């Protein structure tokens, strides 16, 4: 049997086959938090958080990579307080507007700890070392966030992501250290 395929039929077959091929980009991340009695001391508790990536964070990611906008490589970690908490992080949150939660600033560092990154691999990018918060008062922590502003309580920049502990609030006292790591994935 001798079968022939016309150019039009070949093009139609190629286009039809492409309909089944597709990928989606889904931005996500995971925080890991360890609380030690003091720096280098015994582990008191540990939590992992699957976070949400805010709309502003997704837009920032797309603008920087696909549009070639000016890029700020500086990112910082912050803590979410139980004080004044009403609702958790939402995709519409920004540094200036996150009415359901507040930042906990009860740590001795003068600014939010900086995030230092490893090279991306396998669709993920992780911190090269944990960001350390040395607590200077008793508090109850609900979660973490990633932001492009180093100022404690700062309301400018981009809020990339935020998340809450899945196992409930966690207490800290003065002298405790929180070590926070983060992995972003697409």
What features would you highlight for this structure?
186 residues, 2 helices, globular, 5-stranded antiparallel β-sheet
Strand and helix layout:
Blueprint (H helix, E strand, L loop, with lengths): L6 H12 L9 E9 L6 E8 L1 E2 L1 H12 L8 E7 L20 E3 L9 E2 L8 E3 L4 E4 L4 E9 L11 E6 L5 E3 L4 E9 L1
Structure description:
The protein is mostly beta strands. The protein has one domain (about 25-185). About 15% of the residues lie in helices and about 35% in strands. It contains two helices and twelve strands. The protein has helices spanning about 5-20, 55-65; strands spanning about 30-35, 45-50, 50-55, 75-80, 100-105, 115, 125, 130-135, 140-145, 160-165, 170, 175-185. Strands 3, 4, 5, 6, 9, 10 and 11 form a seven-stranded antiparallel β-sheet that branches. It is globular. The termini are far apart.
Q: What's the end-to-end separation, in Å?
A: 49 Å
How many domains comprise the coordinates? 1
Structural class: mainly beta
Task: State the total count of DSSP E strands.
Answer: 12
Q: DSSP helix count?
A: 2
On the 0-100 scale, what is the average pLDDT? 87
Radius of gyration: 22 Å
What series of H and E elements makes up the topology? HEEEHEEEEEEEEE
Largest sheet: 7 strands, antiparallel
Shape field? globular
Précis, in short:
The protein is 13% helix and 35% strand. It is mainly β.
């Amino acid at each position: 049997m001798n079968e022939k395929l016309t150019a039009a039929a070949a093009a139609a077959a190629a286009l039809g086959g492409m309909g089944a091929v597709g990928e989606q980009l889904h931005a996500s991340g995971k925080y890991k938090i360890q609380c030690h009695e003091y720096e280098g001391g015994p582990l008191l508790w540990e939590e992992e958080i699957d976070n949400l990536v805010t709309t502003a964070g997704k837009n920032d990611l797309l603008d920087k990579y696909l549009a070639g906008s000016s890029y700020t490589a500086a990112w910082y970690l912050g803590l979410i307080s139980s004080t004044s908490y009403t609702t958790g992080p939402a995709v519409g949150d920004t540094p200036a507007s996150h009415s359901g939660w507040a930042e906990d600033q009860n740590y001795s560092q003068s600014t939010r700890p900086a995030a230092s990154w490893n090279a991306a691999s396998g669709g993920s990018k992780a911190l090269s070392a944990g960001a350390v918060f040395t607590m200077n008062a008793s508090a109850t922590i609900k979660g973490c966030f990633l932001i492009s502003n180093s100022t404690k309580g700062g309301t400018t920049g981009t809020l990339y992501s935020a998340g809450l502990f899945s196992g409930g609030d966690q207490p800290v006292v003065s002298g405790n250290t929180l070590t926070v790591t983060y992995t972003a994935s697409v």
